[in-house]
Design a protein that fits this description.
Helix content: 55-70%
Number of helices: 17
GO molecular function, one term: transcription corepressor activity
Keywords: Nucleus, Transcription, Transcription regulation
Strand order of the largest sheet: 1-2-3
Order of helices and strands: HHHHHHHHHHHHHEEEHHHH
Organism: Pisum sativum
Pfam family, one: DUF7952
Protein name: SANT domain-containing protein
Shape: elongated
Length: 347
């Protein structure tokens, strides 16, 4: 008998002796989902049966303890959980949040977002993830927010306890970082969900790969939606749809963006900018299917080289506040009124 088995045997005997008789004779009917929910709850919350009870939602604490001390103990699932628990305590000192620390968390979210249950609420899901990373949600709040959005079965599938892609296994710590994943993947094949994940989950993408991500994955989608590259001398800015030239009336952050970093931040905050469920694949392929020997087409690779290691220059350097002033806003309103009035006169 191994040390772990001997320790479990003693612990089982001790806990069964001290357990009230009601725990030994109460109803112990757990279906497959409830059983998997209990096990996942233990990985997340430990033996905090109050939180585990809330996580399962269909069993009393007495029923949970009965299952834990009679059926779960000394099972393969229990041994796997104990190994996970003790390994995390030894390595990092805190074992209950490892599923939500990078890079494991990135893989968890990737699995979750490819689940059918998550496809109808991607934007809400990404907003919850962003709030968690910003520190606006505690772990418990985050877990229950995810459960409310996609359901407990989707969470169980995403973690995959006991399966081939088990995120709780010892090899989960050695999973590839996001930079390693990007290194071997064609940026143009990334979905908009994967792009937003990279931009919002503290992935720490290197500057070179951030540039590649922008030009190969983000910019083609923006370009197809009417965004434009506006140049003036040595300066280049990215204009929103409808903006064709540069003028002092334009407001940075509203009408144009003067750096890749700022534009990626805008995309991360507004995923709908690059989302097109019907034409997403065609959108990217269309841009990269261009004939780059055409003199009228700007080479993307040349642009990458130009912007790879530095921020794009601003159109007009100024120390003034970049927030829109009342005059700027009034100018925008006046312009809109002129356009509206002109259309009415034509009618």
């Amino acid at each position: 008998m191994s040390k772990i088995d001997y320790k479990l045997s003693l612990e089982t005997s001790y806990n069964l002796k001290k357990a009230p008789p009601i725990y030994l004779h109460s109803n112990n009917n757990f279906n497959e989902v409830e059983e998997a929910s209990l096990i996942l709850g233990l990985y997340i919350f430990g033996k905090d049966f109050v939180r585990v009870k809330r996580f399962i939602g269909t069993k009393s604490i007495g029923e949970l303890k009965t299952f834990y001390y009679t059926k779960f103990y000394q099972s393969e699932d229990h041994k796997r959980w104990r190994i996970y628990k003790e390994a995390r305590e030894t390595i990092r000192g805190s074992n209950m949040q490892q599923l939500f620390i990078e890079p494991t968390h990135q893989h968890f979210l990737s699995h979750l977002l490819h689940n059918e249950s998550a496809k109808h609420c991607c934007n809400k899901l990404l907003e919850v993830v962003k709030n968690f990373h910003r520190g606006n949600l505690k772990l418990e709040e985050y877990v229950f927010a995810l459960k409310d959005l996609v359901g407990v079965e989707a969470l169980i599938d995403a973690v995959g306890i006991g399966k081939e892609n088990d995120l709780t296994s010892p090899t989960a710590n050695s999973m590839k970082s996001i930079n390693e994943i990007l290194a071997g993947k064609d940026y143009s094949n990334l979905t908009h969900i994967e792009i937003i994940l990279l931009l919002t989950c503290n992935a720490r993408v290197s500057k070179t790969r951030e540039s590649g991500l922008f030009w190969r994955a983000v910019w083609p989608r923006l370009l197809a939606k009417g965004w434009s590259k506006i140049s003036k001398g040595c300066s280049i800015v990215f204009g929103v749809p409808g903006v064709e030239g540069v003028s002092r009336k334009l407001v940075k952050g509203i009408h144009y963006f003067d750096s890749i970093k700022d534009l990626l931040a805008e995309v991360a905050s507004h995923p709908e900018l690059i989302k097109d469920p019907v034409k997403e694949t065609a959108m990217v392929n269309q841009v990269f299917g261009m004939k780059f020997d055409d003199p009228d087409v700007v080479r993307v690779s040349a642009l990458e080289d130009h912007f790879r290691n530095h921020v794009v220059e601003t159109v007009r350097k100024s120390k003034r506040n970049t927030k829109p002033s009342m005059k700027a806003l009034e100018a925008v309103v006046d312009k809109m009124e002129e356009v509206t009035s002109s259309k009415r006169m034509r009618r």
